[in-house]
Amino acid sequence: MFNKRVKVKDLLASEPTGQEVTVMGWVRTFRNNQFIALNDGSTNNNLQIVVELGMLDENTLKRITTGASLKVTGKAVPSLGKGQKMDINATSLEILGDSDAEKFPLQPKKHSLEFLREIAHLRFRTNTFGSVFRVRHALAFAVHKFFNEKGFVYMHTPIVTASDAEGAGEMFRVTTLPFDNPPRNEDGTINFKEDFFGRSTNLTVSGQLEGELAATAFSEIYTFGPTFRAENSNTARHLAEFWMIEPEMAFCDIEDNQNLAEEFIKYLIRHVMEHNREDLEFLSQRLAEEEKQLPQDKRSEMGLIEKLEFVINNDFERITYTEAIDILLQSPAYKKKKFQYEVKWGIDMQSEHERYLVEKHFKKPVIVTGYPKEIKAFYMRQNDDGKTVAAMDILAPGIGEIVGGSQREERLDKLTERMKEMHIPAEELWWYLDTRRYGTVPHAGFGLGFERMVLFVTGMTNIRDVIAFPRTPKNAEF
Ligand code: ATP
Ligand code: MN
Fold this sequence. Notes:
This is Asparagine--tRNA ligase. By secondary structure, the chain is α+β, with helices and mostly antiparallel strands.
């Protein structure tokens, strides 16, 4: 019964020649007891259904309300009205599901993003979220396309992990032990030998360590999966559950790594520009309208599409951490004491510093390399200066850090030495160290935060609005 349905997007792309079609979707508006704007989520463009006067009884007409679902069969004809190229002159109309107009929370008017977050189960039915999630889909598809074209193997790294070397203190524990009376060791600590996995386990913060294992066999792999961080940062850029893409490449150094990351980001943007033009135009318009309420100096210098075009057509700036700190120290913002946090060599740059570099100084994406080893993870390759490591972060305008990566330390002695210094138990990571024992190779990789990429491409400003059901501190509704 349903298989003859045409998608509104496909229908609108065809010529109306009086052909009979069946469409299904949800009512956005119903005017004059005659014109229905029907949407099926394939595009923001509604299909105009024309119901001839007298065709439907009074009761059926009353049931055509915003949010109701319909099946309509009719003839596709050129529209007489302005604003759309075709009408469907209904010959039959069936109400699949009623929607109580009094109670349906989505009225055909503008709702705030904050309000829509509270009804995240329905917000997909708005134009903004329709566009955001179609773009999100296209980006996810392009991720696989990019790596597949390059011969990378897609690895599914585990979500439950026993190693907490990476995310000390920021992990969600996974356990089946009873909270009220957990089994204890003689010294009073909890006995995780009794736990489900016979040891203490957590949700993963990154698939990198396992990714490295695979890269030292397949040469080039990537992961694309959910990651979890129990950091209590209630910002517009952090989620407790987010998706990350992590390529890992053998026979690859920090420069190859930067080249790949830049090519990858540009490829994703280009894919969306080619396949989601309509959605980008809508989002661009939305952003422009939202920014009208901001003071002039807070508005973006470029429109959304203009910005994306600029990014794909220009090289990312590449600087060292040391150069970045010098730029900050020379900046008018620093001299006028505009930064809240201290600036000096050795700091972990704060969002205000990163944003100054990309938004005020360079006005384009920036790749920063060579960070002090003290602020970076144990597995990053140590540079000859003894102070820095071959780390790279990519900073994007409006977002801050979008990629974090590095060349990995492939020399067993250097790696174990650093682990000792950082109190990382080598016994627990015996399997990781084995890659350095058996055929070690120079290798590198990075993690791209998927939601931050979606933010960048859609021009949305809060990360809660680019994931279907955000998980943030004190919030796991839906
Ligand atoms: P930040 O400094 O912004 O908190 P990070 O240095 O902790 O990020 P990495 O561990 O390098 O991040 O993770 C790689 C990428 O994952 C980041 O560049 C970012 O795009 C993304 N990311 C990290 N934490 C989060 C989060 N809590 N929510 C969403 N994306 C995140
Ligand atoms: Mn990082």
